[in-house]
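Hi P.,

Sorry for the delay on this. The queue was packed all week, but I finally got your sequence through. Input first:
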Amino acid sequence: MSLTKFESMLKTNSVYFFDLVEFEEIIIHYLDAGKHSLAKRAVKLGLEQHPQSIDLKLLQVELYIFENELDKASLLLKNIERLEPNNDEVFIQKATIQSKSGNHKGAIINLKKALSFTDDKIDIWSLMGMEFLYLDDFENARLNFVKCIDVDYEDYSALYNIVYCFDMENEHDEAINYLNAYIDKNPYCEVAWHQLGRQHFMLDQFKQALRAFDYAVLIDEHFIGGYLEKAKTLEALEEYEEAIENYRISLELDDPTAYAYIRIGECYEQLENYAAATSYYKKAVHEDPLLDRGWVLLTNLYYNEANYEKASYYIHKAIKIDEDNAMYWHRYSEIKIKQNCYEEAVKGFERCLALHDDSIEIYISLTDVLSFLGRFNDAVTVLYRAQKIYKNFAEIEYRLAGLFFELNKQNFGYNHLIMAIKIDYDYHVVLNELFPIVYQNSKVQKLLLDFKKALD
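Then the structure:
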C-alpha cells in the first residue's frame, strides 16, 4: 500500500507523509529490485521528512557505496558513529568500504567490532568468512562459515563455502568427515550428499561417490547437479549405459546443454557405438556452435574412420574458435599428412612451435615432413632447435645423420651417426625408414656392423 502511495506521489509531484518504517520498507524494496534511482529518491524524501533517522542515513551510506562514492559514505558514517558509537551496522558498512578498497584485514577488524554490538551474528560471520577468502586464509574462512552452520543448519551457502575451503587446502578426507557429521544431524539434505559425493569422486572412491549421489537424487528427484555427478561417476566405473540414462534425465529436467550431449557422446564412443556418438556430438555443436571441444571430438571420430575430408572440415571449425590451441594445429597437420597436403602440414607444425608446444613429437614430425619435401636444410635447422631442449636423443641424431648424408656433408653425417649409435643402437632402423639410400651405403652398413660386433 505504501509503495503504491509513494509511486503515485512521484507521478503527481504531490508530497505525502510516510512514517519511518514505511520509508525503510520502500527503500529496501527498491534496493532488492535493483531500482537504485528510485531508492535514492526515497532516501532523499525520507531524510527531508525524518532528518534525524539513523536507519535512513545508513541506507544513504549503502547507496553511496553502491555508487562507489566511498569518501561520502565514510564521512557520513563518522557522523553516525558519533551519535551511535555502538551501532553494529556502522562497522559493517565501514568493513564494506574497506573491502571494496582492497583492505580486507581492516574489514575484518571492523566486522569483529560489529560482532561485539549485536546478538544477530550469523550475517557478520558470513561476511568475515568472505574477507578471509579474499586473503586466501581458508582455515579462518572455514571456521567462520562453520559458525553460520551451527546457528542455521540450512545455510547452504555457508555449507558450500566450507567445502570450498577444504577443497582449496586439498583436505578431502577432512571434508568427508565434516559432511558425514553434518548428514548425521541433517540426513535429508541433498546438498550435503551431493558435496559428499564430489569429495569421494576427487579421491577416486567411485563406489562411495555413487552411493552419495544416489541419496542426493533420491531426496530431490529434480536435482540436476546430482544426476550429472552420478552420471560422471558411472562413467568412471565404466557403467556407460547407466551413465547415459542419468545424463538423459538431466536433459529432461532442464533445457538441453551441450555439456550433457558431449558426455553422452563420449559414453557411446566408449561403447564403440560411433554413429550414436557422432549424433550427440552434432547435437552439442548445434546447441553451442562455439564449443570447440565438440568440433574436435567430431574431428577425431572421422579421423579414426579415415574420413579425412570431414575430419579436415571439423578441425577447421575448432581452429576458427580457438586458433591459439596447439593441440588443434597438431591434429590439423596429422590430417593434412593423410591428405598428402604436406606444405599445409608444415604450416600446422610450425604453428604448434610458435604456440610454445616444444614436445619432441612436434619437432620430429615437422622434420620428417620437411625431409619428405626435400627441404633438408630447413629440417636440419629444426633439429638443431630441438637439440637445445632435447640433448642426446637418438631420434634427433639419426635424423641429423641422414640429412647430412643427403646434403653430401659426410663428416657431419658420420659424427651424428656415431653419436646416435652410442645413444641407442637398435633405433638405427629409423634410418632405413626415412633415408633408405643412406642406410644402404656400404660405409654406413660397415659402421653399424662394427658397432654391433663391439656390443656382442
